[in-house]
Amino acid sequence: xxxxxxxxxxxxxxxxxxxxxxxxxxxxxxxxxxxxxxxxxxxxxxxxxxxxxxxxxxxxxxxxxxxxxxxxxxxxxxxxxxxxxxxxxxxxxxxxxxxxxxxxxxxxxxxxxxxxxxxxxxxxxxxxxxxxxxxxxxxxxxxxxxxxxxxxxxxxxxxxxxxxxxxxxxxxxxxxxxxxxxxxxxxxxxxxxxxxxxxxxxxxxxxxxxxxxxxxxxxxxxxxxxxxxxxxxxxxxxxxxxxxxxxxxxxxxxxxxxxxxxxxxxxxxxxxxxxxxxxxxxxxxxxxxxxxxxxxxxxxxxxxxxxxxxxxxxxxxxxxxxxxxxxxxxxxxx
Length: 334
Ligand code: ARG
Description:
Elements: H1 2-11, H2 25-31, H3 42-55, E1 59-61, E2 64-66, H4 68-85, E3 99-100, E4 109-114, E5 121-128, E6 133-136, H5 138-141, E7 149-153, E8 166-175, H6 177-181, E9 189-193, E10 207-208, E11 220-225, E12 240-245, H7 249-257, E13 267-270, E14 287-289, E15 294-301, E16 312-316, H8 321-330
Parallel strand pairs: 10-15
Antiparallel strand pairs: 1-2, 3-12, 4-5, 4-7, 5-6, 6-9, 7-8, 8-9, 11-12, 11-14, 13-16, 14-15, 15-16
Helix pairs in contact: 1-2, 1-3
The protein binds arginine (ARG).
């Protein structure tokens, strides 16, 4: 695997020095490595290539033994032709692969917006758990002053202000204490708003799954948000929804292990094996729902978006329900 990864880094080496480097999502998905994003990183990659060539003479890719010569030839061809076909490799279509949601369909969803520099900008989703508390991801809440946040309920189109919307300022942020110690896990936080929301048919709290509640593999889940419609794409103004099957914990751990990422059993993964449907940047903090409209997860992370065999990873509510209830009862998370 290590050698495959290195090989991928070689094959992904882009051809246009000095320019904004292109991603090759297909190759990256095959091998699970990211392209260098800027030409500054180029030198780093050159060094890696050099290391690789001197360390390993032969390696296998998909069962084919690559000799040094064959490898060099492939690298040469890919590097020469890359600018020609880079634009032809389709990125995953539109959340990714979803459809627009209707007004009032997810009345517990909120948009968390930063008002730090005057103009409100959406950056994460959240879920209303009662009139004053929002559930979201810790990585969404961390580093923000609560009063620099506005929480919008009844939102559908980020650009159109409708009468259904209610806007509240943040008052208090409670980040899971364990997240402070290990930011790769425990991605859960709660935000209290300064004034309670007034619940109606467009704005109500969600039902959360209970502590220890199991979600079985292949259960169809729905993820929603205003996140990017494709990897590296801009946010969606219109709320999107997409259905993704739940993964077995161990399958997800194994899938991410191939690219040296750790998935923990306190996370739940969902996505298609072939990719194409997923949450993406900007969907974080929002809910992952089961078919009874219970929140079973919080959108947390993924490698790229909608890539084959790399499902979206969510904080699993069933491991944190007691923590959530404690915050609701006491206002503190410890
Ligand atoms: N961390 C991302 C965010 O801040 C969400 C990523 C979800 N990615 C995924 N492929 N499911 O919005």
